[in-house]
Amino acid sequence: MPHVVLVAHQESVPFKELAKLAGVLQKQVLEHLQPFWQCSATVTAEAEWNRVPNGSWPIVFMNNLPGPLAGQHLQHNGRPIAYVETGPWQSVIASHECLEMIVDPNGQSLLRPTHAAGTLGGADMPIEYLVEICDPCVAPEHAYPIDDVWVSDFVTRQYYQPTQGAARWSFAGRVGGPGQVLPHGYLTWYNLSDGRWYQSQADAAGTTSVVHIPAPDVSGQPARLAIDRLGAVKRHACFASKPRPFAQVGGTPQHCAIDLDAELARHSATFQSKASPAKALAKSVKKTTEKSKARTKEKSQ
Ligand SMILES: [Zn+2]
User: Fold this and answer.
1) Weakest-pLDDT range from 53-57, 80-84, 209-213, 250-254
2) DSSP code of 81?
3) What is the Å distance from ligand 1's center to 224 Cα?
4) What is the DSSP letter of 218?
5) 3-state SS track over 64-77
């Protein structure tokens, strides 16, 4: 089972607070997330970086986090790592990163809607949603409390793949229907017909508009990260149809082989590189399904 570890960079958050939040997130994962998404993780906190177990998925709290670093990245070993800026809503942001990380560790899972004619397309316009379960309800105003700590609401599988009849679209019930986006929220999809990315964005009043967005310049990092950077809420920074990509960490825990400074430097460099967005997109799309691969090829020829 994945092991998510909350840790504060340069004592940016008191350990007591982190430990309490880890308990709250563990509860959210086991009691709220797992029944809806059939995936889980152990969530703990560590007081010092060098005590973070090797192979774990760290969520690092930092003061004055540079904007592009916020959100989920991949470590050199391919496992996820997320950076959260400290502040009044850090528990909601950490919950967002934790849940999305568990549901989609690689940050680029796409889910094909089962409904032929939804709000976003029809049978003639096949799409695939980027699985970012907290983005449609990203704003703190949609959060809900667990033991007096605010956590992010998240959408269910039904939200992407509705079946007939009543359903729970988001855990806390803030989201009212499939494909619905709450004020400040967003929903991203890839259109297989035209090979372009789109986003439904809601303003503060909840009015949504569908916009074409640039292909995420993922540069080997999660598409979600690039998408989230385009999102309406700048302060923030992400499946079960795919096999778990990481082997279980067993045996004696080994302490931190992750070089945080090196990871930070590498992730900062990612945003300064001039990798071709088209190349990066082609790469991420190829990884999704054989079907989308075939269609993309057809389109580009
Ligand atoms: Zn997100």
Assistant:
1) 250-254
2) E
3) 7
4) -
5) CCCHHHCEEEECCC
Distance from residue 110's CA to the centre of ligand 1 (Å): 14
> What's the 298 CA to ligand 1 centre distance in angstroms?
31
pLDDT confidence bin for 125, thresholds 50/70/90: low
- How far away, in angstroms, is 2 Cα from ligand 1 center? 19
Q: Taking residues 54-70, what's their average pLDDT?
A: 88
Cα gap 282→147, rounded to integer Å: 44
Instruction: Say if residues 49 and 13 touch (Cβ distance below 8 Å).
Output: no
CB of 66 within 8 A of CB of 13?
A: no
CA of residue 223 to ligand 1 center, whole Å: 10
Q: How far is the CA of 127 from the centre of ligand 1 (A)?
A: 19
3-state secondary structure of 250: coil
Taking the centre of ligand 1 as the mean of its atom positions, its distance from the CA of residue 87, in whole angstroms, is: 18
CA of 141 to the centre of ligand 1 (A): 16
Provide the pLDDT for residue 222.
62
The radius of gyration of the chain from alpha carbons, rounded to an integer in Å, stands at: 18
Residue 297 tokens read as: 């090829």
pTM of the entire structure? 0.77
Using CA atoms, how far apart are residues 145 and 142, in angstroms rounded to an integer? 10
Query: Considering only CA atoms, which of 133, 103, 128 is closest in space to residue 196?
Result: 128
pLDDT digits (tens, 9 = 90+) for 261-290: 777 777 776 555 434 333 333 333 333 333
Query: How much distance in Å is there from the Cα of 136 to the middle of ligand 1?
Result: 9
pLDDT at 137: 95
Q: What would the two tokens of residue 55 be?
A: 């192979």
CA of 153 to the centre of ligand 1 (A): 11
Q: Where exactly are the structural domains of the chain?
A: 3-300
Sheet containing 3-8: which strands, arranged edge to edge? 42-46, 3-8, 57-62, 80-85, 71-74
Work out the mean pLDDT of the chain and round it to a whole number. Answer: 76
